[in-house]
Specification:
With 198 residues, this protein is α/β, with parallel strands linked by helices. It has one domain: Methylesterase CheB, C-terminal domain (Rossmann fold), CATH 3.40.50. The chain is built from six helices and ten strands, in the order βαβαβββββαβαβαβα.
């Protein structure tokens, strides 16, 4: 596992805080947050997370190297594509022209590049039906792990319901259970790195 992709919209800041607060301080995978919330709410969420959680929090600019243990917020108007830069993973954001499709296009590009080395987490929100349904098909084909925050802990469960319906291996879990799964993936990645260097 190389990357955690978190998708959210309405109710996202609360759900995101719930998930991140369950992760250990030494969590080593980068986390990329795709959202459709307006800029002011995203910036206030980013500032709140910086003050309340031990993770480094950053805004993904046009071209950003992805560091372990950092939470990256995407800009809602950009579509992100993974690239390799200086032998390191990076994300490049290009103008998506329509914030209703940027999340879906970013999911498509990131899942196609990372495949089984990606864990995708859907938190709270409505999601946009046609855009999200198409992305679910691509997630299913990619072989990545897919988790949905359970309906008891979610402000708006429409997006989660759609993902569970369209992604065969998607699991509906609590924030604590999702964090445990991500920690297990992180440990597997650490073991792989040790094996690669010996």
């Amino acid at each position: 596992m190389k990357l955690v992709l978190v998708v959210t919209d309405i109710g996202g800041p609360t759900s995101l805080h719930s998930l991140l607060s369950e992760l250990p301080t030494d969590f080593s995978l980068p986390i990329v947050v795709l959202h459709t919330v307006e800029k002011a709410l995203m910036e206030s969420s980013l500032a709140a997370l910086e003050k309340t959680l031990p993770f480094k929090v950053a805004l993904l600019e046009g071209r950003t190297l992805i560091d372990p243990g950092t939470v990256y917020f995407c800009k809602e108007e950009l579509v992100y594509h993974p690239i390799i830069r200086d032998s390191r993973n990076a994300l490049v954001g290009v103008d998506g022209h329509n914030s209703h499709t940027t999340v879906g296009k970013s999911i498509d590009g990131i899942s196609a590049a990372y495949k089984s080395e990606l864990a995708t987490v859907f938190l709270s929100g409505k999601g946009y039906a046609s855009d999200l349904t198409a992305s679910c098909t691509r997630l299913d084909q990619s072989g990545c792990a897919v988790f949905v925050l359970n309906r008891k802990e979610t402000v708006v469960f429409d997006m989660g319901r759609r993902v569970l319906k369209n992604v065969a291996r998607a699991k509906e879990l609590s924030a604590r259970q999702i964090a445990q799964e991500l920690v297990a993936f992180s440990a597997q990645r650490a073991e792989q790195r040790v094996t690669e260097h010996t």
